[in-house]
């Protein structure tokens, strides 16, 4: 491509370090689409003849069919997907192929291709996250009234419902989707026509190519356009944050599936056995989702460090932008699919969860609240009285509602038999009917809203 200036070819190591074709061949669809839009514009603007444009478009169609059928050939001498396609075009249609690169550089070409690729990745991620939300809402609906212990510090805190717990993840995923939507909207401008860095003297129509490729318009500064990878970073940041949520959910499944908890039976299809311990059924998929989140955060870090300190405009370091994005997209897609299956196909052991909710004095706050409401005792004092009741129950090895009334009255005479109505786990969750609280009727309202919003999208 640049033989005119060089007396000798590249060394073996130069060929190897320079080649991005092993990974950027993943951009072939976007590269062909952008070349089509570019050559159609060149013809419309009378920069290439209609005949040459037709030959180029025909050649690109043939190449697309070849790539589809046989894959993209990997010739390191051709460095990347852009030169691989252009050289094949020259083989197919001869000299006219050389006109495709008029008013274009690989710098604006790769920036355009990569944006198109990330945009597609965002659309796929969004579809995956929507499916995960469906799974969460379906299980939350079925378990709006299933009682489990709620934790702080992983210590029993107050009873909650499983539906409420699952809907917490629905909210996280909703924020993830909005982050991806933001990223998509911000990145949807076309760098094509920025050429190498300074723009071009050819009378091109950047709005035409932008529109043909589904962009909202052309980018406004050619230097920025060829050296900006914010769109990839935005994607990776959204992916990293999303992967943290998936990892937290995965961790819950790991804990819930453990024998001491026994809250959930995971589907065989997402578990593995042990080669030595016959009884084992391990939550490997959940553990790998937890592990993958670390790698996805690593991808974000990798590209941030690559971009840091690069002067304008394009530098070859930027060729290293693609592997972390491709890797993160692959890991995130797998993680979303695994968690969707885990949520949809797990069996929750609601009896066991309910029993666990009764351990650990989970309704102590309800006793304190009862003292405030029924006996008009200030909350701090009620907290103290309740603490004494918990201490007594603990010393006897019984639950709060198993303490005889007489003993409770000895702690505070203002307690009467109505207190027992407040101490069951059912009463506890039903009482928490503030907006966004865990009461089954509240959870059902949130589930209905979530379903309606998923259906309307
Ligand atoms: N393979 C390069 C990349 O992926 C394409 C752009 C090369 N541009 C250049 N001026 N060498 O970034």
TrEMBL record:
It is found in: Cytoplasm. It catalyses: 2-(N(omega)-L-arginino)succinate = fumarate + L-arginine. Residues 4-298 form the Fumarate lyase N-terminal domain. Its EC number is 4.3.2.1. InterPro entries: Arg_succ_lyase_C, Argininosuccinate_lyase, Fumarase/histidase_N, Fumarate_lyase_CS, Fumarate_lyase_fam, Fumarate_lyase_N, L-Aspartase-like. Pathway: Amino-acid biosynthesis; L-arginine biosynthesis; L-arginine from L-ornithine and carbamoyl phosphate: step 3/3. GO terms for cellular component: cytosol. Residues 361-430 form the Argininosuccinate lyase C-terminal domain. GO terms for biological process: L-arginine biosynthetic process via ornithine. Keywords: Amino-acid biosynthesis, Arginine biosynthesis, Cytoplasm, Lyase. HAMAP family: Arg_succ_lyase (MF_00006). This is Argininosuccinate lyase.
